[in-house]
Amino acid sequence: MLPPFAYSRPGHIQDAVERLAQAGAHVHAGGTDLLGCLRDGVFPAELLVSLSGVDGLAGIETRNDGGLAIGAMTTIAEVAGHPAVRQRYPVLAQAAAEVGSPQLRNQGTLGGNLCQKPRCWYYRGDFPCLRKGGYKCFAVNGENQDHCILGGANCFIVHPSDTAPALVALDAEVHTLGPRGARRLPVAKLHMPPADNPTRETVLEPGEILVQISLPPPPAGLYSAFRKVRARRAWDFAVAGAALALAMDGQRVADCRIVLAGAAPIPWRAQEAEAALRGKTLDDAVIAEVAAAVVANAQPMSKNAYKLPLFKGLVTEELLKAKGV
Ligand SMILES: Cc1cc2nc3c(=O)[nH]c(=O)nc-3n(C[C@H](O)[C@H](O)[C@H](O)COP(=O)(O)OP(=O)(O)OC[C@H]3O[C@@H](n4cnc5c(N)ncnc54)[C@H](O)[C@@H]3O)c2cc1C
Questions:
Q1: Residue nearest to atom 33 of ligand 1 (CA)
Q2: Of 11, 35, 137, 259, whose CB is crowded by the most CB atoms within 10 A?
């Protein structure tokens, strides 16, 4: 059952910022993650501040520089189906289309997708884990088959969002508004590595609202794609996934980003793999080298080494597609 909380639905963004300054206040966007967390007692809430009545937070527009501006309250379904996203940033449209189920994509928002809490069963369950302010990560000696193979440090969650790796691959930025004013930062810097603070998912300050996500114009020759492997065909989170953004010059990869999903507590840039690919022509030897580099520094836990060949295989397949085989 949901615990009691106060509810507020301001019409102006500045009012929302002010109301969120209250202790125990949380942003309510689509509620698909938030309400489950409250129902399961993952964290308490005194006040929910809905953004659904705030003007100007939803919708997708082309910017003057040819990029796109996506309001944080835009639904995942709209992102997945928008013609400009599908044509110019396929990796984002494909990632959005992989989120949950049609109901979740119709109700859930892009901002909420980026800020959602991890799905770790110890964090969501009745365990005093480090992320909830407790004393240890129970996954270390526990059921860690879904946990991370990279970047774990003290907490071994995997970052749950499908769209975040795609946005990092596209070098997108978030625009925020909070008690200390407006700021913008790369999506690549939005999520908090557990080594810096295992109790927070993002670097957003209390009361800071994610207002917009902006995409730069696609680079010349952009080939982009998102691939997600999950335990079952119905809605599920990524066991392993990758977002690729390759700036192609014929068969040569002039520049690239490879960002892993289901691998680490934050969307994980596979920088060794990017270095092995940048400037190279896509051939079988290069693809094999890149696929090996994707997991070269992985440190699997006791029950998730199965992810290593999964990541190698899916990156190999995606690069073969990019090559046109
Ligand atoms: C059964 C199920 C399956 C799912 N499968 C997937 C999946 O496959 N892939 C995937 O990526 N996700 C999945 N999700 C997660 C969820 O659907 C998405 O994260 C959704 O996009 C969340 O958006 P929302 O608008 O509902 O966020 P909410 O639930 O309203 O908010 C989520 C969190 O973000 C914060 N927040 C929301 N908007 C903002 C904002 N603008 N500024 C600051 N903070 C904000 C809230 O305070 C809250 O902590 C699944 C969820 C469920 C319940």
A1: 116
A2: 259
